[in-house]
Amino acid sequence: MSIDISHITKRFPSAGSGKEPFVALDDVSLTIPSGRLTALLGPSGGGKSTLLRIIAGLENADSGAVTIEGTDATHLPAQKRNVGFVFQHYAAFKHMSVAKNVAFGLEIRKRPKAEVKQKVDDLLNLVHLTQFADRLPSQLSGGQRQRMALARALAIEPNVLLLDEPFGALDAKVRKELREWLRRLHDEVHVTTIFVTHDQEEALEVADEIVVINEGRVEQVGTPDQLYDAPANDFVMRFLGPTTEINGVLHRPHDIEVFTHPGIAGSIPARVVRELRVGFEVRLTVELLDAAHEEITVTVTRAHHRSLGLRPDLDVWLAPTHGAVVPVMESVTA
Amino acid sequence: MVRSSPLLRLVLRTVVVGYLVLLVAWPVSLVVTHTFDGGFSALSKAFADPEVTHALQLTAIVALSSVAINLVFGVTISILLVRYEFPGKRLLSALLDVPLSVSPVVVGLALLLVYNPRSGWLGPALADAGVQIIFSTPGMVLATTFVALPLVIREVVPVLEEIGDDQEWAARSLGASSFQTLRRITLPGVKWALVYGVVLALARSLGEYGAVKVVSGNVVGSTQTATLLVDQRYQNFDQPTAYALSFLLAVASVVCIVIVSVLRPKQEA
């Protein structure tokens, strides 16, 4: 049992007549396993939110099919899909109390009053909002509103929980707290969860599995470690973190070793141009002493920086760290 | 905030207050004082006059009917304009402002051209079917509805745009049908805009004169509304009744506005 997306294509008409329509999703096929926390990761406008809205039934695909837990949902309206959806800007029902918000899906389903009350109490407890039950959403902070929205979505016991940039509107500190909390919540509830994010750190930290989407296509599917260590292509490599290019090969700036003496096999000579200390790391800008005199970035820890006595105008020799490079895994066909 | 000199503020205040007094407060207060020139005699005399009570009843019927129609169609058109894309949307939006910019007399004449039972475009067919529009209540409701058409829509549309469709989609994904979403999410969301639009439409409908005069035929005791009667009595030197009726119309409008400002929450989040 899982969510199967097969050959989904979605175009949006472009503003202005005569232009080619914008292709948001281009023949996307994907299987999302049950009970896992999956991140759809990619740059803005890459199609990941559109895919999420198509799974939820908030948007219709031009072609292709969506199967949720074995049921063909392609032509089911949103209210029949039993999907919990959490919006970036909370979509709180402003005229209802927090408890009423959470109870909404159950009241629509005409569950007995006692059952609704019990369930709402349990969920508010789960999201730590018990003491706010009678407040209006406008009296809550952003993080609290989003937790309320999550409880509301979980109340209907959805087959799948979909979160569209759920922490995007929150400040950095709350965002970090909430994603740790989401991870723990998922370990308790185990509902199949898909969340959209453009923040690679968020995806790497929270997700069991990451789907990288760019320009309407799936670039790679894998665990956070697989994606980080064995990116399928340069796009994934660049999107998941900072990169540095030596002789046409991409490396992580912290996966390059710096020596102050020559003679290491495969090392290349360079000269330190600038250095920038940021917390525990020092970012070095070095100039390769080859024909092109390219400037690249290398990151070292501050302790390493000190022990080597690195400073501008010092000659150094660079070599990719042994063991950081993993053979590229088989590219995923989109 | 920009700081301004106390003198400038005093001058601005005087100008604004003076302007409002000369234009609004003074004339309206004169209507009130003239109404009560002879104590309550003008009012009691007016209420004893069957033509007056009939005109007031007719005004109430016409105003309430047209407000009800404008409420239903106003909400429908507003949702259509904000939530759906269709060809001709901008044209429809522009057309909705026509009743605000065209003189009510022209509205009345236009309706006459369509619904006149003898020479109208649609009137003879309707007359054959036994439906009389012109020179009867349906025509007056039609004219009043036309004139007050944009008021509900212009209040509701910006609020619908502001609240967006996320809440509606959230309700749908939680299992609500489109009707349940409308009743439980959309309508409560635009509640205050609706109340405000309805009150404006009601005030406008109570006071409509030009369009109603053309389509009603102004038949005393039959198709004469309060505003038409005010004019007629004033022309016929029955000023006390004219003032009393004007006073009642003004009170109705003021009560509407007061109710809204009391009901409306101080600060909507």
From TrEMBL, chain A:
GO terms for cellular component: ATP-binding cassette (ABC) transporter complex. The keyword Translocase applies. It is an enzyme of class 7 (translocase). SMART domains: AAA. Keywords: ATP-binding, Cell membrane, Membrane, Nucleotide-binding, Sulfate transport, Translocase, Transport. InterPro entries: AAA+_ATPase (IPR003593), ABC_SmlMolc_Importer (IPR050093), ABC_transporter-like_ATP-bd (IPR003439), ABC_transporter-like_CS (IPR017871), Mo/tungstate-bd_C_term_dom (IPR008995), P-loop_NTPase (IPR027417), Sulph_transpt1 (IPR005666), TOBE-like (IPR024765). Its EC number is 7.6.2.9. SUPFAM superfamilies: MOP-like (SSF50331), P-loop containing nucleoside triphosphate hydrolases (SSF52540). GO terms for molecular function: ABC-type quaternary ammonium compound transporting activity; ABC-type sulfate transporter activity; ATP binding; ATP hydrolysis activity. Residues 3-240 form the ABC transporter domain. It comes from the Bacteria. NCBIfam families: 3a0106s01. This is ABC-type quaternary amine transporter. It comes from Nocardioides pocheonensis.
